[in-house]
Every structure is written in structure tokens, then in C-alpha cells.
Amino acid sequence: MDSNTISRIQTIITKNSELFDELAQLYKIFADSSRVKILCALTQSEMCVGEISEFLSITQSAVSHQLRILKSSNLVKSKRQGKNIVYSLTDDHVKTIIDCGMEHIAE
Amino acid sequence: MDSNTISRIQTIITKNSELFDELAQLYKIFADSSRVKILCALTQSEMCVGEISEFLSITQSAVSHQLRILKSSNLVKSKRQGKNIVYSLTDDHVKTIIDCGMEHIAE
DNA sequence: TGTATATATGAACAGTTGTTCAGATGTAAT
DNA sequence: ATTACATCTGAACAACTGTTCATATATACA
Asked: pTM surpassing 0.85?
């Protein structure tokens, strides 16, 4: 590596430091199988907490906790519908990210 | 949600359970800013442990620990070059995954 | 108003993770 | 052989994470 390359890389790493933190933070959300399953279920249809809980065979409480994380990260949104609170994906970035990871696994 | 939809989603979640575990496992590797920075540095050029350590201002020991994780996940490979051990990405899936996440952040 | 249903919340706990430190290993050069 | 250099390793520790349990909140319905 010549000194030009070194200083170029050094700049990239240093200048984008917070960006890498954000990126790690984003991937942290996908780094749990319950959350991945929830997100994947939501790519199929919007649904309420109880349904998610049944689909994944996970405690309603656990689902609720995870949904709070997903919501505060703006990956899902919620609306009340009668007795239920229905969750859905905020956009299709989620699907893109999941697909991207799946592609790596399927090798 | 009609009963057809329910059983379809149920099948998807149940059948791919291990796949979701793998996916979460993969994202777990990207879920740390040190590792993301290491991987990003390696997208620019192969380099040895000491260089990575300087670029990121992280202990050489910490880098070595992280590299072991990255290597055992087959995201990086290593070769000896004189006194140094030079690390590089095994393929360009890594870059794809990083770019995919970056795209989500940049909104 | 009272009761059932759906969801959210907080404390507690066990399990995991990333870093540091001290020292081991291995290679190169004299 | 001895020394210097580069990297690896394992133990220890603090910080963080996901689940569970018990309970609170909030809406619907009788």
C-alpha cells in the first residue's frame, strides 16, 4: 500500500465514523431471529400482536417488546383497529435488506 | 386475514425457521461498528492486522479478536506475507450487504 | 358500570458480547 | 541462538440483550 492509498483509506474510515455506527445499529435490529421473523411475517401482510405471537409461538409480551424496538427504529408502524393494534412495515427497505442477506446465505 | 392467508404465512414462518436463525446470525456479524469498519476498510484494499489497528485506532488485540470472528464466518480470508498476516474479503457479498444498509440510512 | 379482551410496561434474570490485559506463539533478521 | 516484531489467545470484566412474570392500561361490549 502506497502512502496515497493509506491516507485515502484513513480519510474514509475517519470521516464516516458515525455512519458506520448507524449502520451497525441498523444491523443490530436484524440480528435477532424473533425480529427477523416478525419483519418477514409483516412482508406478507399487516397483522396484530396476537397473530404475530401465534405465528412465531412466542409470548405476547416478548412480541410486544420487540415491536417497540422495531417501531422506535421506524421499521414498522401501527394503527388501532377495534380491539387490536395492527402493525405493518413502514416501507419496503426491510424486504430489500432481508433479501440481500438471504442471497448471501443461499450459496 | 382469511384462513388461507393465515396458513400460508404460518407455513412460511415454520418451514424457514432455521433460515431466519442463519440470517440473524449473519446480521449479528455486521451489528458491531468495529467489524463494519474493518470490513469497509477491506473493501478498499487487503491489509494486515497492524494497519487495520492504526486505521481504526483500536487495540491490535481487539482487531485480532474481531478478525477471528470474521474469518470463522467466512467473510474474510488471510495469508501470511513475510512477518505480516494479510487479510482480505472472501467475496463481494460483503460490499453488497454494506451498500444495502447504507442505502436505507441515506433517506 | 363492570367485565373480558388486547396490548404495553417494568423489574429481574440469565446469557451473550466486546474490550483489555498479560502472556504465548510464530516468523524474520542479526 | 537470541532478539525484535507481528499476531494470536484466554481469562476477566463490564455492558448490553431478550425473555419471562406480574401487572398496568386501554378499548369493546354487555
From this structure: yes
